[in-house]
UniProtKB/TrEMBL annotation:
GO molecular function: FAD binding; oxidoreductase activity
The protein's name: Lactate dehydrogenase
Record keywords, A-Z: FAD, Flavoprotein, Oxidoreductase
Matching Gene3D superfamilies: 3.30.465.10, 3.30.70.2740, Uridine Diphospho-n-acetylenolpyruvylglucosamine Reductase, domain 2, Vanillyl-alcohol Oxidase, Chain A, domain 4
Taxonomic lineage: Bacteria, Pseudomonadati, Pseudomonadota, Gammaproteobacteria, Steroidobacterales
DNA damage found in the keyword field: no
Record has Oxidoreductase as a keyword: yes
Organism: Steroidobacter agaridevorans
């Protein structure tokens, strides 16, 4: 493993038996996993290049049990790593040797659906797609739809602020979460947000969504559900060059058209997805756009025509509009199968996640191609073109000496490029361990120190998900204590965390 993680605390490991016994009293029955062979499924997440079995796994069933586990671990100085479905592609749920892995898979119920107020209350272990399945009979859906939506859990989506193909129009997780129930490291249970549109006071809900399990453990989520549009149509557009496809994306948005989704695949991705899903993608193109429009029938028909016009102006070589909903879903089946499809053409792949301004797409893709040649590794590009969220997949073979390290170096160069052209390190996968050491590329020491102060406000002992996000995690005292003079803090009228 080329990324370093915090050194295990030998004193905690020496007390392993005592800690496991205490956890069994809190979560009896089969709620604690401790045998080495039973811990194997938990040693990694979606970033499978890195593995580390946890000290133990605890699987609570109630918020009270989560609170008790956290309270005990906090009092004993034991680290806690929260885990949902384990699909994180940035190593966000990677365990530590001296940590308790807190699995939330048993929190799998839809608690309430309020169609009148267009919301649902769910537990964090509910899969993303299951929310839509629970409400679709009444004509509703949950908008964020990551490619892993059949498996990823809503709690993990909240942790990573997950996106998906339809987030161009409907927003990412933070735009679709109304409230959470949160268990703090000391066991306190609090609620942020709720069923109303906006909560009063500080936007702490906005802090929690995307906090990657560093601030608390989410045990309940209130999400926004939306009426399904009257019509949805998709068009496949093939181009002879990636530059033409990228310019088409910019021109569609530039004309004020906001599709429900706008995805791009390069030639390699198209061939892999078609071989896997057999959905009828054109194989003689260098780039393929999937553009979906939704809304009233007349609006969709008009906008499809406008998109086709813009595509022709950008030298599109083929267009195909879905004739019915089954064909539209088939178009998306190929795109959503792109990741497993690439798994058939390479022993391993490293999926990156960076976001850039749309206008820089042609330049960035050209430079990634140059990096591919210099690093000697192939790359397949599949990404959310509408919002500039790139997902290059670097192909490598972990059984060949040095290829993983070359893939990591290639990925780091891509992320540095994203920041260089005015983008950011991540769009939806989070920082985790994968991008942790690149944080100084984007943030100054002052920026990182302020972020760590938020961490300290929620988790003073730095016990929640350590080793993630921050390249160097300072103790809270090292960041400077709040100055108190004659019993008064500076600016006492300001609200504080």
């Amino acid at each position: 493993m080329s990324l370093t993680m915090p050194q295990p605390d030998d004193a905690i490991l020496a007390r392993r038996g005592e800690i496991i016994a205490a956890l069994r009293r809190i979560v009896p029955g089969e709620g604690v996993i401790s045998q080495p062979h039973e811990l194997k499924p938990y040693e990694t997440d979606g970033l499978t290049a890195y593995r580390q079995p946890p000290m133990a796994v605890v699987l609570p069933e109630t918020t009270a049990q989560v609170s008790a586990v956290m309270r005990y671990c906090n009092a004993q100085g034991v680290k806690v790593v929260p885990r949902g479905a384990g699909t994180s592609l940035s190593g966000g749920a990677l365990p530590l040797a001296d940590a308790v892995l807190l699995g939330l898979s048993k929190f799998s119920r839809v608690l309430d659906v309020d169609y009148e107020n267009r919301l649902a209350v769910v537990q964090p272990g509910v899969t993303n797609l299951a929310i839509t399945r629970a409400v679709e009979e009444m004509g509703f859906f949950y908008a964020p739809d990551p490619s892993s939506q059949i498996a990823c859990s809503i709690g993990g989506n909240v942790a990573e602020n997950a996106g998906g193909v339809h987030c161009l129009k409907y927003g990412v997780t933070t735009n679709n979460v109304l409230g959470v129930e949160l268990v703090m490291m000391d066991g306190e249970i609090i609620r942020l947000g709720g069923r109303q549109l906006d909560a009063a006071g500080l936007d702490l809900l906005g802090v929690i969504v995307g906090s990657e399990g560093l601030l608390g453990v989410v045990t309940e989520v209130t999400v926004r559900i939306l009426p399904r549009p009257q019509t949805a149509r998709a068009v496949l557009i093939g181009f002879a060059s990636i530059q033409s496809a990228a310019q088409c994306v910019a021109d569609v948005i530039g004309e004020g058209i906001i599709p429900a989704a706008m995805e791009m695949m390069d030639r390699s991705a198209v061939h892999a997805a078609e071989a896997f899903a057999n959905v009828g993608y054109p194989l003689d193109v260098e780039a393929l756009l999937i553009v979906e429009l939704d809304g009233p029938l007349a609006e969709c028909d008009y906008l499809i025509g406008e998109v086709e016009r813009i595509a022709r102006a950008n030298a599109a070589v083929t267009t195909r509009v879905s004739r019915n909903d089954a064909e539209r879903l088939a178009f998306w089946a190929g795109r959503k199968a792109a990741f497993p499809a690439v798994g058939r053409i390479s022993p391993d792949y490293y999926c990156m996640d960076g976001t850039i301004p749309r206008r820089r797409l042609p330049e960035v893709l050209q430079r990634i191609a140059g990096m591919s040649a210099s690093h000697g590794l192939r790359v397949v590009n599949v990404f959310h073109a509408g919002d500039g969220n790139l997902h290059p997949m670097i192909l490598y073979d972990a059984n060949r000496a040095g290829e993983l390290e070359r893939a990591e170096s290639f990925g780091n160069d891509i992320l540095r490029l994203c920041v260089e052209v005015g983008g950011v390190l991540t769009g939806e996968h989070g920082v985790g361990v994968e991008k942790r050491d690149l944080m100084p590329v984007m943030f100054s020491e002052i920026d990182l120190a302020h972020q760590q102060r938020i961490k300290c406000a929620f988790d003073p002992g730095l016990l929640l998900n350590p080793g993630k996000v921050f390249p160097t995690l300072h103790r809270c005292a090292e960041l400077g204590r709040m100055h108190v003079h004659r019993g008064q803090v500076s600016f006492p009228d300001l609200p504080r965390l």
